[in-house]
Amino acid sequence: MGDLPSFAGFSPDAFTFYAQLGDDDNNHKTWFDEHRQVYEQAIRVPMEALLARAAADRFGDGKVFRPNRDVRFSRDKRPYKTHCGAVIAFRDGSGRASRYVQLDAAGMMAAAGYWELSRDQLERFRRAVDDPDTGEELAALVTAARTGGLEVLGSELKRAPRGYPTDHPRIALLRHTRLAASRAWPRADWMHTAEAYDRIEAVWREAAPLADWLETHVGAALEPRRPRGG
């Protein structure tokens, strides 16, 4: 493949493609193959151009996730994802927080954080949350992120993790099994322009204090990632 074009946003065709793919009658190989050129030109190539610009801005190299779903362990057997996601620093062993961007029929979102924690990472995360100094620091960062309009998300246990009291002052954070900050936007005209990159980059930078905390107090996994399906 030759040099990528400069990122100039996503055309309306990208959003229309996912609106149509979201129809179960279209979510099959024949339809996707018939519309593959739209996927390539309106979605994959611009997303790779976005990642190239992010790399030039020193966020690091990224990848576009494949459009196929892993249906081996899922009741949902539709073969194609109804969104396009791209990520920087995911499962690369570095301990860097991931930067993520996603496009679907409804709009776009961007996020930064740790999308999954190995067992040893989760242990360090909980110890740091439990510690009054580092735990209060994280609580303040979460509050600041939410005040700034970011959504702080991550899978949560229904109960306190083993060994921690249910009335712990930071029990909500202790129940997290991953942590990230994100912002989503409904479809808008700026998504069809280079302004889309500026908005995404702003989220990554706004989430940087939370990402820095994770990198400092949790860091890279020290044991192999456990495989999972779905």
Quick structural summary:
This protein has 230 residues and is of the alpha+beta class. Helices cover 40% and strands 15% of the residues.
Question: Main traits of this protein?
Answer:
230 residues, alpha+beta, six-stranded antiparallel sheet, 8 helices, globular
How are the secondary structure elements laid out?
Elements: H1 12-21, H2 29-34, H3 36-56, E1 62-64, E2 83-88, E3 98-104, E4 107-114, H4 119-130, H5 132-147, E5 151-153, H6 171-174, E6 179-186, H7 195-206, H8 208-217
Antiparallel strand pairs: 1-2, 2-3, 3-4, 4-6, 5-6
Task: Explain how this protein is built.
The chain has 230 residues and is of the alpha+beta class. Helix content is 40%, strand content 15%. The protein has helices at residues 12-21, 29-34, 36-56, 119-130, 132-147, 171-174, 195-206, 208-217; strands spanning 62-64, 83-88, 98-104, 107-114, 151-153, 179-186. The chain is globular. The model has no long low-confidence stretch (mean pLDDT 94).
Shape: globular
- How many domains? The number is 1
Class of secondary structure makeup: alpha+beta
Report the order of strands and helices. HHHEEEEHHEHEHH
User: What fraction strand?
Assistant: 15-25%
Tell me the CATH topology: BirA Bifunctional Protein, domain 2
First CA to last CA: what distance? 31 Å
Mean pLDDT value: 94
* Helix content range: 25-40%
Look at the structure and name the CATH superfamily. Protein of unknown function DUF1054
Give a quick account of the main beta sheet: strands, pairing sense, barrel closure: 6 strands, antiparallel
Number of helical runs?
A: 8
CATH architecture: 2-Layer Sandwich
CATH domain class name: Alpha Beta
Which consecutive residue ranges, at least 5 long each, have pLDDT under 50? Answer: none
Radius of gyration: 19 Å
